Amino acid sequence: MKKSLADRIEQYLKVLISRSDDKSIEIQRIELAETFDCVPSQVTYVISTRFTEKEGYITESRRGGCGYVRIRQSSPQLADSALEYIDLFAFIDELKLRQLLNHREAEMIKYLAVNICADLPREYRAKINADMVKALYNYLQM
Fold first, then answer.
1. Among 51, 64, 80, 138, which one is least packed by beta carbons within 10 Å?
2. Cβ partners under 8 Å of residue 87, min gap 6
3. What span, in angstroms and rounded, lies between the C-alpha atoms of 75 and 119?
4. CATH of 5-74 among 3.40.50.20, 3.50.50.60, 3.80.10.10, 3.30.56.130
5. Whole-model pTM?
6. What does residue 68 show for φ and ψ, rounded to 5 degrees?
7. Which position has the higher pLDDT, 138 or 12?
8. Using an 8 Å Cβ cutoff, are 89 and 110 in contact?
9. Rounded to whole angstroms, what are the CA distances from 68 to 1, 14, 78, 101, 117?
């Protein structure tokens, strides 16, 4: 059975990640698209649908001439702790939907929330999570 283009790109990226020392890679969409003889939007589709936080990956990208995509395999601990931030993440996503935050700002806040609290006990993380929702809400009321 022949694999789809998306499956081949996903498999290729996962092999690159598994072979890297720090379980992360940095690629350029255009170069990967040339490798697979496709358009960059197909690469973007694969990254956005198959390399999600839910799947255990953290992605970061920058568009433009010197643009890149970084994909990092997150530790299971980080993926589990992200579940504790569901209210904060839902609030951030709502702000993004209302165009009060752009994509980069939303992802940066999520990243900070998870990484700042990673070594804290669960009850402190919950308090900080709630405080961040209040602080964002108050900031937007200014």
1. 64
2. 129, 130, 133
3. 13
4. 3.30.56.130
5. 0.53
6. -155, 170
7. 12
8. yes
9. 32, 17, 23, 22, 27
